[in-house]
């Protein structure tokens, strides 16, 4: 039994020794097949490549195939930064002689006195195919070698739970990409979306698609928060890709001649099944927060004097839909003067969702001394991983006003109380009043009747003509309705486009700021969230407001440029033109709305 066991292990030991010799002194010798499955009417290309020149190359017998071409040799040698790179390849073209599974056995070669062997590989030969690979056009090869996929992190999320969508282009090792451009960007209706621009296209060489080796590149990333329950569709991303496909022809130096073709690919529709948030255990103060959060209420100081100010900060930290819910409001005692809060967002976007903090800062000014408690408040959120509601409660804050007036009748009485004391007379308390005051003149420069007197007297009369001219000027300005509208609209355009103007020259930052400015303008004018609308809905909405077609078309063209800029090169001149056009469109819209 023991002898049989060792005999069974012998092939594995021999294979291990063969593999060990494969990488000795950095030498590699391997076999590559053009495909591992082919029709009986197709051809198979076999390459034996090495990174160091050798002798006595011995190919396998190619059982089950007929050699129709080869061996042909190709050698590549180069020097880069003092380092030599060498490659030598023996190529065979094989024709199957029967259907079935065949093994391309080991080839051997002697390099520097050592024998190296390639690993055997299995090939499956099927029935004849409609179009053999050697008859396929460049378009046919591109069809089989190019795939655009939308990878969704979660196909069944909860309402307002983050879902990432990554658009990835897979392409086989036999082709290369020259260029690509977006034909139609998806519209995320019924989603709150956060785009994550791809600034550098890195090619991954070890990707897998349908179980086969491919290269891949990420083209677009976006995080979605569903705003509606049920079946929601994500429209596809469509691209036009320029592909270089190798042909069977070779140039004078033996290099493969490439054929270029354009191919349109689409990621296809994806459907999400959005689940509603559970009603069981839902807190009364729940405002739609979904994720994982921490909650706190803090004061910048708890001891101060009257008329000084402090900051009370209500803050939520964590990961989730930080921009899509309201923060709870603290119950400030009526004796403290409180101002409208300043809202602050410090949110970072990643493929797992938004992460960071949002806060409201209240400025509080006490008027009287005393101790004033700010009661604890609660914040509730839904945790989609645990599928439970959580409620967090802040600590009570005691504000101690040390100095200042007191409020109420007791305080007033304390400030007006008197203390009576006995009056004692000392000496003679009564004297005669002097009748001679001994006054002397301080000057003879009288104002009444002087030159200054008459100047001040006539000054109002002199100002009457100036007042009349100023009044006429104001009337002229007020009567210029068109001019006033233009000034107001230009001022409004500068207000919304100020951030975009600061980022001129930075393509990604500029078009993100420009798109946000356009949506914020409509949001402010129409009191709606236009970021959730498609361009068609925005066009319909502007048509309802009786905005002329040319102005609407200009607005939609700007939104389209903002989307196209993420995938296409835009010059600084183009950015300046889009900025000027945005200013003009906002001015025209403001006059018509």
From TrEMBL:
Per UniProt, which keywords does this protein have? Membrane, Signal, Transmembrane, Transmembrane helix
Membrane spanning stretches? 453-471
Extract the signal peptide range.
1-21
**Organism domain of life:** Bacteria
What this protein is called in its record is: BatD family protein
Where does this protein come from, organism-wise?
A: Cerina litoralis
């Amino acid at each position: 039994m023991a002898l049989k066991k060792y005999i069974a292990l012998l092939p594995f030991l021999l294979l291990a020794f063969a593999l060990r010799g494969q990488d000795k002194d950095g030498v590699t010798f391997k076999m590559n097949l053009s495909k591992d499955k082919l029709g009986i009417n197709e051809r198979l290309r076999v390459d034996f490549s090495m990174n160091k020149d050798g002798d006595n190359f011995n190919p396998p017998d190619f059982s089950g195939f007929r050699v129709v071409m080869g061996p042909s040799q190709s050698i590549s040698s180069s020097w880069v930064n003092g380092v030599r790179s060498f490659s030598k390849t023996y190529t065979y073209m094989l024709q199957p002689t029967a259907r079935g599974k065949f093994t391309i056995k080991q080839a051997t070669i002697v390099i520097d006195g050592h024998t190296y062997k390639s690993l055997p590989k299995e090939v499956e030969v099927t029935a004849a195919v409609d179009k053999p690979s050697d008859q396929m056009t460049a378009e046919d090869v591109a069809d089989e070698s190019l795939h655009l996929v939308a990878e969704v992190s979660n196909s069944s999320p909860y309402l307002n739970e983050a879902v990432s969508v990554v658009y990835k282009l897979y392409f086989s090792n036999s082709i290369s990409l020259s260029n690509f451009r977006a034909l139609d960007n998806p519209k995320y209706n019924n989603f709150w979306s956060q785009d994550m621009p791809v600034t550098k296209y890195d090619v991954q060489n070890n990707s897998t698609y349908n179980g086969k080796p491919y290269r891949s590149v990420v083209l677009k990333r976006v995080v979605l928060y569903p705003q509606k329950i049920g079946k929601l569709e994500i429209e596809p991303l469509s691209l036009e890709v320029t592909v270089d496909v190798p042909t069977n022809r070779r140039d004078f130096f033996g290099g493969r001649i490439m054929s270029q073709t354009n191919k349109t690919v689409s990621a296809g529709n994806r459907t999400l099944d959005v689940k509603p948030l559970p009603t069981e255990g839902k807190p009364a103060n729940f405002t739609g927060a979904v994720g994982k959060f921490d909650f706190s209420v803090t004061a910048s100081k708890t001891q101060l004097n009257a008329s000084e100010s402090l900051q009370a900060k209500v803050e939520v930290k964590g990961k989730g839909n930080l921009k899509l819910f309201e923060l709870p409001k603290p119950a400030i005692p009526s004796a403290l003067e409180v101002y409208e809060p300043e809202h602050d967002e410090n949110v970072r976007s990643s493929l797992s969702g938004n992460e960071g903090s949002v806060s409201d800062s209240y400025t509080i000014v006490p008027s009287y001394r005393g101790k004033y408690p700010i009661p604890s408040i609660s914040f509730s959120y839904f945790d989609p991983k645990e599928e439970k509601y959580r409620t967090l409660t802040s600590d009570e804050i005691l504000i101690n006003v040390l100095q200042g007036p007191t409020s109420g009748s007791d305080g007033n009485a304390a400030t007006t109380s008197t203390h009576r004391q006995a009056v004692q007379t000392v000496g003679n308390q009564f004297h005669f009043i002097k009748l001679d005051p001994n006054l002397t003149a301080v000057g003879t420069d009288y104002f009444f009747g002087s030159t200054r007197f008459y100047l001040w007297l006539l000054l109002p009369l002199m100002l009457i003509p100036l007042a009349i001219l100023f009044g006429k000027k104001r009337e002229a300005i007020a009567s210029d309705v068109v001019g006033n509208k233009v000034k107001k609209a230009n001022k409004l355009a500068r207000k919304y486009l100020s951030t975009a103007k600061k980022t001129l020259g930075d393509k990604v930052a500029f078009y993100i700021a420009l798109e946000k400015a356009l949506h914020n303008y409509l949001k402010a004018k129409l009191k709606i969230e236009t970021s959730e609308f498609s361009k068609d809905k925005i066009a319909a909405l502007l048509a309802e407001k009786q905005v002329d077609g040319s102005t609407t078309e200009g607005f939609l063209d700007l939104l389209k440029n903002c989307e196209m800029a993420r995938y296409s090169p835009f010059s600084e001149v183009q950015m300046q033109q889009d900025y000027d056009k945005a200013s003009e469109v906002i001015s025209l819209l403001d006059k018509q709305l």
